[in-house]
What we know:
The chain is α/β, with parallel strands linked by helices. It has a single domain, classed as Aldolase class I (TIM Barrel, Alpha-Beta Barrel). Helices cover about 45% and strands about 15% of the residues. It contains eleven helices and eight strands. An eight-stranded parallel barrel has the order 1-2-3-4-5-6-7-8, surrounded by eight helices. The chain is globular. The two termini are about 15 Å apart. The relative contact order is 0.14.
Amino acid sequence: MTNPVITALDVSDREAMRALIKKLAPYGGVFKLGLEMFVGFGPEVVKEVIGGGGKVMLDLKLHDIPNTVKKAAKNAGILGAELLTVHASGGSAMLKAAVEGVKEAGSKTKVLAVTVLTSIDEETLQNELGVTKSVLEQVKSLAMLAKESGVDGVVCSPKEITAIRECCGQNFLIVTPGIRPKGSAVGDQKRIKTPAEAINDGANYIVVGRPITEASDPAVAMENILKEIENR
């Protein structure tokens, strides 16, 4: 079984990061590097993870004018990122620019559009952000925009996997955070599922952070998640 688990390296300690890579790289999964690490350590951290045997999801959620995003995406491709995130709400011109950027880099980097953050619920979306659609309808709308713009897939809550599969087809990548193995604390995620539920619904990758990185033995935590998926 190809490892569908993306481990979120949301740590500020570089030695802790290295220890996690050493323990988890043999399982063949992807490591998510977000803003915390990228701002703290710079682009070299991507090369370090790749050098340690890992693949990288560069989760920068790019959201800027098309030309800026295109250049940033090109640089991400040159760095060797496996996956790169951009905000779908940046619009079609920006999304297309991101795709053009990784192509110019000559890389195999896949661009993923973030739909609605998993920390945002219905009340926040409508009352604070002024979006009149439901979370589900907004996610579907942004996912279809991303597909039409040539993006490889989306990042979405596990609650929206089935709807996106229906509107965007089987060849569209779905990466889902908001994953909590059975018995794990929910934390700040509001729209969650277990690893087995998310894969059953059609996710290609699941993002798991603290349940692995804060476990007493991250390798055992990874093995338990893979067993849960395999035995679903």
